[in-house]
Design goal:
315 residues, mainly alpha, 15 helices, elongated
Length: 315
């Protein structure tokens, strides 16, 4: 039973007078400690009254509908994917009931399925979602704040193919690899964009399309060696042959530490090292908005640096 308080609109848990009452109410014999406990209770009571109740599933839908018009397509897809995983586990849980223990349980489920780096990215997405919830009074705390995130192990750095490796790859006899690898090498498209390429995106010797990852529009002139390949062997459904894993393994036969994305790094590196392209030219062709990202795709050849140093002469 709760009893009215003369000094506040909130309630006591026991009857009594003065200090005895607050000690009995909190179960703490020290008066100062009892006052602290009572203050915490009052604060909790206030926040529970003012916080709006909504399930994670409903608020995530509201959050995504807001982001869809304010973020690029690629960012929106990434955020939606991260929140959908969280929503599949805690769809019917109230947002205000989410705490650190709940997030720890979620991490223990996900860490068995994904890499540490992916886990950290997912937690960042969920962290921003709870910031949104707090700002709109759907939650009191952000349960992601005090999480212990997994350690990210440094992965091998991606490099560009050497000229010899590139020649061997482009000389493949596998018809679908031949088509895919030539498109990747001569356009610098990401694998997903190359696979979804269709004739409607080819106009007057140019590839014009929107990148799936970022939503940025890119215009790439078609290389003269790529023109006959696209005319003779390109069909809108031919790229969807569902053998990307095997194609990646065939790349590793020639270059063990590389994958299909290495073609994009090779495209950027060869343009700057052998074709005289500026960093800005490479940035435009790759469809980057930030030049710092482009720098990650250009890998300077050590032999080229040696030839440059040897040209240094006081005469």
């Amino acid at each position: 039973k709760l009893y009215p308080r003369s000094d506040s609109k909130y309630l006591w848990y026991t009857i009594g007078d003065g200090k005895d009452r607050i000690r009995k109410s909190t179960g703490c014999m020290d008066y100062r400690s009892a006052r602290v406990i009572q203050k915490l209770w009052d604060t909790k009571y206030i926040t529970n009254k003012t916080t709006k109740r909504i399930t994670c599933g409903r608020l995530i839908m509201n959050y995504l509908s807001l982001l869809e018009n304010r973020k690029s397509k690629g960012w929106y897809i990434r955020i939606r994917s991260g929140l959908n995983k969280f929503n599949s586990v805690y769809n019917n849980v109230n947002v205000s009931d989410c705490d650190v223990d709940l997030m720890d349980r979620y991490m223990s489920i996900r860490e068995k399925l994904i890499a540490p780096k992916t886990m950290v990215e997912e937690i960042k997405i969920i962290n921003n979602f709870f910031k949104f919830a707090i700002a709109r009074r759907f939650a009191n705390i952000n349960p992601c704040t005090d999480l212990i995130l997994p350690k990210i192990v440094q992965v091998r750095k991606t490099r560009a193919f050497t000229k010899e490796e590139a020649k061997s790859l482009l000389a493949t006899k596998h018809p679908k690899d031949y088509l895919l690898w030539h498109i990747l090498f001569y356009t610098g498209l990401r694998v997903g964009d190359a696979l979804s390429l269709n004739r409607s995106q080819i106009h007057n010797g140019y590839i014009k399309r929107e990148q799936t990852k970022t939503g940025n529009k890119v215009i790439i002139p078609i290389h003269h060696k790529l023109e006959p390949i696209l005319k003779n062997g390109f069909e809108d459904d031919m790229m969807k042959y569902g053998a990307i894993g095997r194609s990646r393994e065939r790349v590793k036969i020639i270059a063990d530490d590389c994958n299909l994305h290495t073609f994009r790094h090779t495209f950027a590196t060869f343009l700057e090292d052998y074709c005289g392209a500026s960093r800005y030219d490479v940035k435009v062709l790759l469809g980057h908005k930030n030049g710092d990202v482009t720098s990650n795709y250009i890998h300077t050849n050590v032999d080229r640096l040696e030839s440059i140093i040897n040209k240094l002469d006081i005469n």
